[in-house]
Amino acid sequence: MQASFASKFDVLTRLDVRSKMLIAALAAVMTIALSSLNSQLLLFTTSLLYLFALGRYKLIFVSYAASLLMMALSVGFASVLALFIPSMGKSLELSSLCIPFLRALTVMNTILPMAFTGRLQNILNGLQQLKLPFIIYLPAAVIIRFIPTFAGDVKQIWESLKIRGFKINPWQCTIHPIRTTRLLFTPLLFRALKTSDELGIAAELKGLHAGSNSGSMQRRRFGKHDIAAITLVLLICTGAVLLQIYFPTDIKAAMR
Fold it and tell me: By the 8 A CB rule, do 107 and 3 touch?
């Protein structure tokens, strides 16, 4: 799967996995540290361009659709609770929800390119070269590789349901929740458990265990693309901090 788009979208595949991890870590830290609308919009816009460099537009559309659906569900359940606890209604205003949603989308924009352009061995090597403990880098590698593998499982289950003549759409999920759970969510649960086991076995087959040093023979230095990418990310973070300091626009003021 990696070879199918490696030549077409060479920018991301040339970046070292440690560079992508650093970009994702900086994005997570900056979204938490900054609270102004201007700063969050800058981080979101630049991270979205970074995500578009992946070139998998269908994946981007599905990811955003799923994210927006989960956000809508959270707002819906909170609205129901607000009927019984009126004080919660203030937290459902757009001014209160905009920043948290932008933070979540920014983090997603930086994690997806890392997950879909890195092989398991490269991720393990990169994490080992960071001198992280075994109990940290093994689960981290499995989590990163779990995302694209799980996406493939969802596609297979979706296609199998279409072949069997079942139509799964928002309306059918609403009027037939039990059938949707049986046909869609239950297979996804078992596939997720199986996938996690397979990724762990794959790590074991590569000779990875506590105290091993499987990545020492494949050490890779940062190239010019990594240096350029990290420099650009640091400039963006600096710009976001300056926006936070000199233009601390609040969402309530922007809506007036």
Answer: no
Give pLDDT tens digits for 80-97.
777 877 776 666 666 677
Tokens 């779990």 sit on residue: 146
Q: Distance between CA 17 and CA 137 in Å, rounded?
A: 13
Q: Whole-prediction pTM value?
A: 0.77
The 10s digit of each residue's pLDDT in 147-161 is 887 788 888 887 887
The alpha carbons of the chain give a radius of gyration, in whole angstroms, of: 21
Per-residue pLDDT of 179-223, as tens digits, reads 777 777 788 888 877 877 777 676 666 655 555 554 444 556 678
